[in-house]
Amino acid sequence: MTDEATAFVPGHVTGFFSAHPDADPSVAGSRGAGVTLSHGVDVRIERGGGDAAVTLNGEATSVDAVSGVLDALDATDASVAAETPLPLGAGFGVSGAMALGTAYAVNAAYDRARTENELVTVAHCAEVEAGTGLGDVVAQARGGLPIRLDPGAPGHGRLDGVPASPRVEYLSFGSVSTEEVLSGDTRALTAAGERALSDLRERPTPARLVSLSRRFAREADLLTDHVADAVAAVRAAGGDAAMAMLGDTVFAFGRDLSAAGYDPEVCSVHAAGATLCSGAVDDADETGRADDSDRADDLGTDPDDGTPPERV
């Protein structure tokens, strides 16, 4: 047992999804596909002697999913300090990352002796019950370009992935209320997500993921004006882009946003999932942009020899 522990959880952009609610939060979830990012969330847990304190980038905050994890793991006296270059509520799965990172770090700091699947289930259920996400946690635990084939936590859900690690560009214009969308009528959204998933499984490539995500946003009537303008500009320049679910955020692979005249944030696909660690994993500079050596680190490899580092 230690007095503190730190976990890193990659950000997650959902390209398309279908909602599958259930009275049991471990069964509830989503099907769809997305991108895990080397830009993510570092979560540090310190054992305390009073009420839990939660901060995000140094500012006091309240995240229901984190509170749910602390309750489930009997660590309500813990302090939670999260650091991330990603904006909250903009489609990057920050609340899910904070929940999952809290579960991993509490397990170490409080010697709870839970398995990875048990911790993912705790975080997934807390996120579902908070109404802030349905599929981010399981995708962030897996890493890569995850395809969520069946909804739910481990034991219920089933995942696959697109075998690729493209360069990722993104640009956020603001937030969209995930809770508001998920609490409304999701029938049209779910039908569009099911079509996209079926089409991606026929040809699972990064380009297909982006094009189907672009189609999904339009069919589900979720496309924002800012993202619509950016997607149109990227396509006019010969590239492709799509909206991050759920946020006023556009993402693309390669240099498609840059080629259209934008100045995007740049990162890579995070090949590994959530990881318990001894310090920060993401070495991007304060602007959130990473150079080539940073991207090698973010992919979980040594830039000198390409071998993956050992997990703590």
Description:
The protein has 312 residues and is of the alpha+beta class. The protein has a single domain (1-301), classed as Ribosomal Protein S5, domain 2 (2-Layer Sandwich). It has ten helices and twelve strands. Strands 1, 2, 3, 4, 5, 6, 7 and 12 form an eight-stranded mixed sheet that branches. Helix 2 packs across helix 3. The two termini are 14 Å apart. Mean pLDDT is 88; it is low at 279-312.
Short overview:
With 312 residues, this protein is of the alpha+beta class.
Topology order in helix (H) and strand (E) letters: EEEEHEHHHEEEHHHHEEHEEH
Radius of gyration, CA atoms, in whole angstroms: 18 Å
Low-confidence stretches: 279-312
Work out the helix count. Answer: 10
CATH architecture: 2-Layer Sandwich
Tell how many strands the DSSP assignment holds: 12
Terminal residue distance: 14 Å
Q: Calculate the mean pLDDT score and round it.
A: 88
CATH topology: Ribosomal Protein S5, domain 2
Which CATH class is shown? Alpha Beta
Give the domain tally.
1
Percent in strands: 25-35%
Shape: globular
Largest sheet: 8 strands, mixed
Alpha-beta content class: alpha+beta
Q: What portion of residues is helical?
A: 25-40%
Top keywords for this entry?
about 300 residues, alpha+beta, Ribosomal Protein S5, domain 2, eight-stranded mixed β-sheet, four-stranded antiparallel β-sheet, 10 helices, about 35% helix, about 25% strand, disordered C terminus
SSE topology:
Elements: E1 4-20, E2 29-46, E3 53-56, E4 59-60, H1 64-72, E5 79-83, H2 94-109, H3 116-130, H4 136-142, E6 145-150, E7 158-162, E8 167-175, H5 178-182, H6 187-202, H7 206-219, H8 225-236, E9 242-243, E10 247-253, H9 256-259, E11 265-268, E12 275-277, H10 292-298
Parallel strand pairs: 3-5
Antiparallel strand pairs: 1-2, 1-12, 2-5, 2-6, 3-4, 6-7, 8-10, 8-11, 9-10
Helix pairs in contact: 1-2, 1-3, 2-3, 2-4, 3-4, 6-7
